[in-house]
């Protein structure tokens, strides 16, 4: 579902979080901005007013003058400074030439002193000639505070009986926030400090007061409030866009990684995460790529091992089949001579036949016994060669001499089938090879015997001895039926017989070629078999030695 998607959750989480931030910001600004600004303005006014107080308290300026530093103070706080003198219930205020106004009576309060307030634009020394006084700074004021505001503010401030009592010590500054008293919603700050008696030469108590307006702040807040309507509308739109793109930025690579993970789950290890980033997501993508590569390599190895295992299983099945065939072949090979030996032996026992006939019976018994002995000997040789316990007697052997010797032994079988023998020698001089003489003869006898069994009567048998760089190649080619292609890979396996009929004429026992293979492998030789146009060629190599004179 859509609501379960990560991008959907990230978008709404980001949007809600930013909207909460905006709402909290609006509430804080609405509720606390005015209070905070007033606090800051009060603190700043108190600090700056202390500097103004020091100008007079230190005696740098007379009270009947208003220097440029005071004027700058008034401009900074949109206010007005004045000197306030108290003589009993009589209060006179001198603004130093800024504003001239008549005496301002106090409004009644709950048991307040009945102060009589006079406000003058000059100084105490020349208040009778105020209209002739030339102040030290321009008489016009940019403070924005008019007479009514000054009257109202002072009247309100003096309503509290402890205002002046709180200023009993010189230099102790008091700043009072006076709320709006009319429909203009203008708040005022009134700062007051008692002057030292050394400065006050008129008698009574003298105070320095400063009146500052907070109206610019209120106007600014109102303007900002109207501006924030458009600002917050734009902010909401920007927040939504930011949340959308932020969610896409976070979730897009995760979606891509999820697709790659699904492909890996389907065993498609060719998938890779194409994310070029240096953060944790990029590291995750790189880790997934390494994982996919390792899984692909491991899977390939497993498939290779599985294929090898299947091949081994198949080969084991074939070997098991070969063993069964071997048992059948050996049983057949043993059964025939045993039956012949048993039959002729019983005939001799019963005195059947006389003279040459009895000799024939004895010859058959001897021949079949020798055949059984050869079969047992081959089995023992094969067992020793395959177990690795049989050691070859290495020596330098003349290959031509060995071939002639073996041909002489096999000549009776060759003449019996009228076989046309061709021996091809590429060099007249003798070639010496490193081998075991007895086992090399066994190889040649087995290969020639196999060829003689399969060559037809009157067929061709060719033997070649071909010298190469450091090897001698021996090839034995016979006419006859080719070996089936499906049998070629297994022709050297133990107990394997291409002729599955069990014929004594062609089949053999399936042991001779296995013995040849085991001996040649001990020589480090290469060997093989191939079909020709009119027959089959067996070949093998032997390591060539230096000629010996």
UniProtKB/TrEMBL annotation:
Signal peptide (from-to): none
Predominant location category: membrane
Domain HAMP: 248-300
Domain Histidine kinase: 329-546
Top-level EC class: transferase
Keywords, sorted A to Z: ATP-binding, Cell membrane, Coiled coil, Kinase, Membrane, Nucleotide-binding, Phosphoprotein, Transferase, Transmembrane, Transmembrane helix, Two-component regulatory system
Membrane topology value: Multi-pass membrane protein
Reactions it catalyzes: ATP + protein L-histidine = ADP + protein N-phospho-L-histidine
Coiled coil spans: 288-319
Organism domain of life: Bacteria
Residue ranges of the TM segments: 6-28, 227-246
E.C. designation(s): 2.7.13.3
UniProt-listed InterPro entries: BphY/WalK/GraS-like, HAMP_dom, HATPase_C_sf, HATPase_dom, His_kinase_dom, HisK_dim/P_dom, HisK_dim/P_sf, Sig_transdc_His_kin-like_C
Gene Ontology molecular function terms on file: kinase activity
Localisation per UniProt entry: Cell membrane
Key word Nucleotide-binding present: yes
PANTHER family: HISTIDINE KINASE, PHOSPHATE REGULON SENSOR PROTEIN PHOR
Record's protein name: histidine kinase
UniProt organism field: Paenibacillus aceris
């Amino acid at each position: 579902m859509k609501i379960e998607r990560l991008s959907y959750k990230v978008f709404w989480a980001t949007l809600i979080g930013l909207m909460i931030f905006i709402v909290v910001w609006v509430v804080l600004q609405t509720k606390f901005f005015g209070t905070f600004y007033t606090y800051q303005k009060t603190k700043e006014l108190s600090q700056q007013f202390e500097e103004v107080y020091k100008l007079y308290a230190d005696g740098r300026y007379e009270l009947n003058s208003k220097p440029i530093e005071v004027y700058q103070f008034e401009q900074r706080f949109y206010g007005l400074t004045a000197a306030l003198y108290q003589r009993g219930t009589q209060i006179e205020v001198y603004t130093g030439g800024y504003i001239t106004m008549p005496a301002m009576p106090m409004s009644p309060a709950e048991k307040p002193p009945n102060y009589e307030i006079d406000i003058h634009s000059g100084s105490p020394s020349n208040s009778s000639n105020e209209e002739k006084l030339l102040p030290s700074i321009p008489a016009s004021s940019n403070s924005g505070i008019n007479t009514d505001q000054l009257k109202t503010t002072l009247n309100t401030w003096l309503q509290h009986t402890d205002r002046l009592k709180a200023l009993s010590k010189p230099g102790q500054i008091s700043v009072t926030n006076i709320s709006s008293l009319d429909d203009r919603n203008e708040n005022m700050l009134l700062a007051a400090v008692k002057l030292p008696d050394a400065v006050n030469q008129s008698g009574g108590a003298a105070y320095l007061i400063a009146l500052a307006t907070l109206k610019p702040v209120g106007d600014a807040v109102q303007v900002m409030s109207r501006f924030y309507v458009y600002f917050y509308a734009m902010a909401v739109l920007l927040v939504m866009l930011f949340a959308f793109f932020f969610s896409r930025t976070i979730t897009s690579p995760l979606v891509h990684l999820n697709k790659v993970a699904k492909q890996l789950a389907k065993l498609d290890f060719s998938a890779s995460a194409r994310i070029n980033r240096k953060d944790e997501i990029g590291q995750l993508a790189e880790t997934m790529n390494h994982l996919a590569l390792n899984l692909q390599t491991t899977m390939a190895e497993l498939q290779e091992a599985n294929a090898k295992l299947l091949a081994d299983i198949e080969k084991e099945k074939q070997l098991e089949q070969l063993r069964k065939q071997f048992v059948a072949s050996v049983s057949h090979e043993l059964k025939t001579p045993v039956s012949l030996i048993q039959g002729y032996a019983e005939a001799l026992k019963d005195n059947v036949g006389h003279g040459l006939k009895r000799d024939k019976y004895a010859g058959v018994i001897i021949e079949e016994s020798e055949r059984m002995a050869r079969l047992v000997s081959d089995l023992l040789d094969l067992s020793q060669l395959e177990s690795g316990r049989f050691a070859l007697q290495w020596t330098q052997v003349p290959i031509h001499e060995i071939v002639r010797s073996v041909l002489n032994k096999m000549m009776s079988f060759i003449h019996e089938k009228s076989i046309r023998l061709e021996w091809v020698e590429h060099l007249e001089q003798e070639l010496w090879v490193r081998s075991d003489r007895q086992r090399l003869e066994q190889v040649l006898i087995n290969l020639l015997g196999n060829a003689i069994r399969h060559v037809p009567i009157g067929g061709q048998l060719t033997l070649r001895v071909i010298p190469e760089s450091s090897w001698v190649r021996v090839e034995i080619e016979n006419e006859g039926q080719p070996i089936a292609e499906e049998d070629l890979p297994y022709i050297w396996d133990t107990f394997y017989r291409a002729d599955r009929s069990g014929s004594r004429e062609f089949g053999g026992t399936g042991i001779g070629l296995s013995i040849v293979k085991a001996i040649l492998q001990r020589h480090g030789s290469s060997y093989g078999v191939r079909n020709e146009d009119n027959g089959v060629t067996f070949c093998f190599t032997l390591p060539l030695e230096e000629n010996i004179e």
